[in-house]
Design a protein that fits this description.
The complex is a heterodimer of chains A (102) and B (571). Chain A has 102 residues and is an alpha/beta fold. Chain A is built from three helices and seven strands, in the order E-E-E-H-E-E-H-E-H-E. Chain B is built from 18 helices and 20 strands. The chains are: A alpha/beta (102), B alpha+beta (571).
């Protein structure tokens, strides 16, 4: 699995880890990672890009979908462990204005 | 469980066998198994029967008079072309070389004499499965080819429609060079350019998320907003707000458009920039050799709601010959064989190595070719230079009304107060109103420039109290526009009044424009003493107003400006 999902014990935090290239090929898997079968959405979402090697514009679109699903402007999404290259792509798109990126 | 084996279809089978007894025996076996039988007594006959009746499977004796089975098999396979017509050799040969030859000439299997009915039936079934498989593959291949053809045709049509929309632009102006693959549109790349009524130039380089039709779909409304609003005289901020709102409304959440917008002012010699999500553009100053990066400061278009969208732009001074280079991420992301990216560093190395500014564009193209080996179709670049206004020929505006209802004797007055001044640009409305007067249309460029200068003087120096002396050098220039935005944000009161009066004079007429503001005024004498110089960075645009309009005058300590335009009888 190149997209791994983990929900904290109290059900409050969803962690999504993406491995390898984060592009359109991961569309379905990424979507399935946060569209939970019971329709629930944890308050906090963490997208872990530690093992993501590359990110293209469709990945940016997927992050926007996640944000929308998590409540849009009221969402709490942190993007963590981005590599230097990935950070650069996020910075060009100014996604730090929408996501908490570290 | 439903049986997957289809009911055995009755096949037409050709039996080529020189021995009449064997032929009859085999025919009756095959008929009993439910198939139609055609017969031939030698190879030549077999080929002829095949040509006329197209059997689906052939049982072929190897040794026959006139033409043996090997030659007949070769000819039948040739006639059959891509369709698989299985040939099963009937042979009493037993040495492996002869059996191998059966397959080499195109046979698909062989059956040893004397015939075993069970094996014969099984082989016919197996060959029929292969035959169907081949038919399915061919059918699907043809279907894919048809779909592909269809898709290409759709793209051609879509592109033709789009080119009509984009045709109103001025990408062929003498100060623009660009590189874009013909089908870049289907990679989401978009390049637009148009003149404003004042003779400024707006340029947009955009890049939609995704590929193919979805990426191209958003381009159409974006282009329409761009051309529509530019032609009406709207500035970058209003155009950007409208484009963002439109894309936000029509695009799905995961689609957006990275874009850089430029407004090149040839008269003021400056460039206004907004970059949302595109790679750095570069402003190249020929005098200093310096390249100022035009960095993305904003989210792409179509992401933020109209309420949170940020339309703030940056303004940089330019000198004659200076140029702005914009590029899409296809340039930087071009890969070599080893998946290495071209990258910003290679681009900057090209900048450093460049000796002839005019050759830079080709040098980048060449470097991309050398690096990637293949031309990508998502590489877009555009270079726009600052020329003398006279070197450009903005197209004349086209009007569709007859002129029968042209208003010739009227006046109107507006007062724009603080809350309005913050967000609203009245110039397009004023211009549209004035261009109802046919006699003024020939001077629309000058009219717009003068209106724009009068209005920005009243707003910036009058209401906002900004000192144009700030604009003396490049850094002050940038500071000036930052200060302008800050003061506008905090504006509580103040006004700009515009009074327009149109009066007929014989066959022609006269327009008087009067603009007043609530500011402190200025030393009219001192400013008017300066020689006429349309190209200074600072100077209140006063010289421009005096050159383009007639009888320009200032009163009330500079708080009130008046200028006139005249026209003669229309031909």
């Amino acid at each position: 699995m190149s997209v791994v999902t983990e929900i904290s014990a109290d059900g409050q935090k969803l962690t999504i880890s993406v491995k390898g290239r984060f592009d359109f090929a991961k569309h379905r898997e990424f979507r399935d990672s946060y569209e939970l079968p019971d329709g629930a959405m944890p308050n906090a979402v963490v997208v872990d890009l530690k093992e993501a090697t590359y990110l293209d514009s469709s990945a940016l679109g997927m992050l926007l979908l996640l944000r929308d699903h998590a409540g849009g402007d009221n969402s709490d999404i942190r993007v963590v462990n981005s590599s230097c290259d990935v950070k650069k792509i996020l910075a060009i798109s100014n996604f730090d204005k929408l996501f908490d990126i570290s | 469980m439903i049986a997957v084996q289809p009911a055995l279809e009755s096949l037409t089978i050709l039996i080529a066998e020189d021995s009449a007894a064997d032929r009859m025996l085999l025919s009756s076996i095959v008929r009993r198994q439910g198939h139609q039988v055609l017969t031939a007594a030698n190879g030549a006959e077999a080929v002829e029967v095949f040509r006329l009746q197209c059997p689906q499977l052939v049982l072929m004796d190897a040794m026959m008079p006139v033409m043996d089975g090997f030659e007949a098999a070769r000819q039948i396979k040739e006639l059959a072309g891509e369709t698989l017509v299985p040939i099963i050799f009937l042979t009493s040969l037993s040495e492996s070389e002869a059996l191998a030859r059966c397959l080499e000439v195109g046979g698909d299997d062989f059956l040893a004499k004397p015939y075993n009915q069970v094996i014969l039936s099984a082989k016919i079934k197996a060959m029929d499965r292969l035959r169907r498989l081949q038919a399915t593959v061919l059918q699907q291949r043809d279907q894919i080819a048809r779909h592909h053809e269809y898709l290409l045709n759709e793209q051609r049509v879509a592109k033709a429609v789009f080119d009509k929309v984009a045709h109103s632009g001025c990408l062929n102006a003498s100060n623009i060079r660009y590189l874009q693959s013909p089908y870049a549109l289907f990679n989401g790349d978009l390049l637009l350019a148009a003149f404003t009524p004042a003779g400024d130039m707006h340029v947009l380089l955009g890049d939609f998320t995704g590929h193919g039709l979805p990426a191209a779909v958003g381009a159409m409304p974006l282009a329409e907003v761009f051309y529509g609003m530019t032609a009406k005289g709207y500035g970058l901020a209003e155009t950007l707000r409208e484009m963002n709102a439109k894309l936000k409304r029509i695009l799905p959440v995961d689609m957006f458009c990275c874009a850089t917008l430029l407004c090149l002012s040839f008269q003021r010699r400056s460039v206004e920039v907004w970059n949302g999500g595109m790679p750095d553009g570069y402003l190249h100053s020929l005098a200093t050799g310096k390249r100022t990066p035009l960095t993305a400061r904003h989210l792409p278009l179509g992401v933020l709601s109209p309420q949170t969208f940020d339309d703030r732009t940056e303004v940089f001074p330019m000198a004659l010959g200076d140029r702005v280079l914009l590029l899409s991420d296809g340039v930087i992301d071009t890969c070599d064989d080893g998946e290495q990216l071209f990258g910003v560093q290679r681009l900057q190395a090209l900048f450093a190595a460049n000796r002839q500014p005019d050759a830079l564009f080709e040098e980048i193209e060449q470097a991309l070719r050398d690096f990637g080996g293949v031309a990508r179709d998502d590489v877009s670049m555009v270079e726009v230079s600052l020329l003398e206004p006279a070197q450009l020929n903005p197209p004349a505006l086209v009007y569709s009304d007859s002129g029968q209802s042209c208003p010739l004797d009227w006046s109107v007055a507006f007062e724009f107060r603080a809350a309005t001044l913050k967000r609203f640009n009245p110039l397009p409305y004023l211009l549209q109103l004035l261009l109802e007067v046919h006699g003024l249309r020939a001077q629309s460029g000058a009219l717009y420039s003068v209106l724009a200068e009068l209005y920005s003087n009243a707003l910036e120096h009058g209401v906002l109290g900004l000192d144009s002396g700030l604009k003396r050098d490049a850094s002050g220039f940038t500071r000036y526009y930052q200060e302008r935005n800050a003061r506008l944000d905090q504006l509580q009161d103040g006004y700009v009044r515009v009074h327009l009066q149109v009066t007929p004079q014989g066959e022609g007429g006269c327009l008087a424009i009067c603009v007043e503001d609530s500011g402190k005024g200025f030393d009219v004498e001192r400013v008017l003493e300066r020689p006429l110089d349309p190209v200074r960075l600072s100077g209140r645009g006063v010289s421009l107003i005096r050159q383009l309009g007639r009888n320009a005058s200032w009163s009330d300590d500079g708080r009130s400006a008046r200028v006139e335009f005249y026209w003669k009888a229309l031909a």
